[in-house]
Amino acid sequence: MNFLVCISKTPETTAKIAFTEGNAKFDTNGVQFIMNPYDEWYALVRAIELKEQHGGEVTVINVGPASNDVVIRKALAIGADKAVRVNAEATSSVMVAKNIADHAKAGNYDIILTGKETIDFNGSEVGGLVAAYLDIPFISYASALESDGSKSTVTRDIEGGVEVVEVSGAFVVSAAKGLAEQRIPNMRGIMMAKKKPLEVIDATSTEDPCSVVEFTMPAEKSGVKMVDPEDMDELVRLLQEEAKVI
Amino acid sequence: MSVLVIAENPKGKFKKSAFEVTHFGYLTAQALGTECIALVIGAVEDPGQLGTYGAAKVVHIDSYTGGFDTTVYNSLVAQVADQTGSDVVIVNHSANGKALIGGLAVKLNAGVVSQINSVPQLDGGALKVSKPVFSGKAFAHYAINTPNKVLSLMGNAIPPTEVGSPCAVENLSVDIPENKVIVKEVKTVDGTVPLPEAELVVSAGRGMKGPENWGIIEELANTLGATTACSRPVADTGWRPHHEHVGQTGVAIRPNLYIAAGISGAIQHLAGVNSSKCIVVINKDPEAPFFKAADYGVCADLFDVVPKLNEALKKALAQ
After folding, report:
1. Which domains does chain A have, with CATH numbers?
2. Do the chains contact at A121 and B133, CB–CB below 8 Å?
3. Which of residues 123-142 of A touch B (CB under 8 A)?
4. Does B299 lie in the same domain as B210?
5. B102 and B220 fall within a common domain
6. pTM given for the model
7. Could you read off the pLDDT tens digit of each residue along chain A, which spans 246 residues?
8. Across chain B, how many H-helices and E-strands are there?
9. Same-domain status, B291 and B253
10. Is B298 in CB contact (< 8 Å) with chain A?
11. Which residue of chain B comes nearest to A220, CA vs CA?
12. How many CA atoms lie within 13 A of B275 on its CB side?
């Protein structure tokens, strides 16, 4: 089976969030970048596990500049076989998805995996976009995925529970917690990653129907008000009269 | 032009999210000087009630009786948008809504922004929308420049408000494509409000010491009519079910009130809850980072405080 895993580069979870150029751009100064955790821990690892069961190949794809190669090499070190980087700045979900789909059209992939969302823009858009460009089904927020190569069974998270679905043929799936266990690359993996192919291709689309005009920060919390543990009547009063939430 | 909202009807009934998206569609239509049409797919009790929340009419596709399949839903929504001349399509940022937005954007050749949290505004030829980014640590303001737009609405962003009376229900003739995805089984917990929709949430973490101690949390939730949640370590060790886990890798929530007992407040946990309107933290460690993100704090042993809070609430709510 052949797998394509879409990986994104995101600021690390604890990174300081600040903006520059009149609050129109994310300030990358001093920010450490990582592979988007849902892409790495769940989508990539499940693809590798299924390849280990059935044979085949895992390709990772990223849209971004050469500085993203660090993240791509990590995916190769974890166990992907080869990588493709679309050499362009990722400007929107539509632009990223269009480029991934254009590559995938020629790729003969059985399953295309993404994370359920990125931890920066929290969009959940790319998976559905890629599936629609390729005219194949999309299944979101998978916490389990089994496949025999032609028929696949996916458990997807829904409000208050799960839904189990069956799909035949190629599809796109977005990965949530539970789909796989995080793998840490070992020394052998890291050494091998340096020799694995990383193909750099030109963007096929720069379409960008939505643009960020401005970023703003939420209003600062006015600070915590501590309540005497012996006086829970006071906490209830505050919740009723001050916060007005009950 | 009009605004088309998709009202979800799991198990044949509307939930709060259906009223939210309808009312939000109504407010959006007002801002754009047009009307809001609500689309319902599959069997549902009383579709016309959406008029109460601002729908000018309801389009009901009751001929489709299969499960959720993005291929089918995206085709139906696109056909209805075409027949009703809708140029803005809004879904809930729910499990199904998130699964639809990308495909809808392609079908309708539309710009797409997910998880918007305020009513869109016209700005010249562009539509301006905003959404939380970086797990709630900032907001991004977008300009959408395409004639068609696809949006998903963040949960609990606006209160569903009654503004009218029940409206007409119309059946449109549409082609139903063949299912690509077959739903084999739906397993949900009945009787409680699912976390993403809950207005009141009582959550607990490792400070509970073990699953056998959860009774006090459930009693407190019961008194409030709240949904229970937990931190990641608690779900990972199997003390509580996976679907209760809130935080970055679990469910992101935005209730009016979030009470956290025995949760230290790691940044990954905060990422899932920091948009809550009011946060109460109960922790015996004065250094717990969660206090910095809280509105109200109680620094004491949760095994003393939680039952006391429960009693105080019972007393106040009985009045």
Report:
1. 2-218 (3.40.50.620)
2. yes
3. 123-133, 136-141
4. yes
5. no
6. 0.93
7. 999 999 999 999 889 999 999 999 999 999 999 999 999 999 999 999 999 999 999 999 999 999 999 999 999 999 999 999 999 999 999 999 999 999 999 999 999 999 999 999 999 999 999 999 999 999 999 999 999 999 999 999 999 889 999 999 999 999 999 999 999 999 999 999 999 999 999 999 988 889 899 999 988 878 999 999 999 999 999 999 999 999
8. 7, 16
9. yes
10. yes
11. B293
12. 28
Q: Give me the number of domains chain B comprises.
A: 2
Only one residue has tokens 């027949």, namely: B83
A195 touches chain B (CB under 8 A): no
Q: Are B251 and B243 in contact (CB under 8 A)?
A: yes
| β-bridge partners, A144 | A155
Give the domain CATH number at B120.
3.40.50.620
B161 and B209 fall within a common domain: no
Domain assignment of residue B176, yes or no:
no
User: Which domain does B140 fall in, by range?
Assistant: 3-170
Residue B175 lies in a domain: no
All residues of chain A having their beta carbon less than 8 Å from the beta carbon of residue B96 are: 158
Query: Are residue B110 and residue B242 in the same domain, yes or no?
Result: no
**Residue B196 vs residues A242, B93, B252, B254: alpha-carbon distances, Å:** 25, 10, 7, 7
DSSP state of A110: S
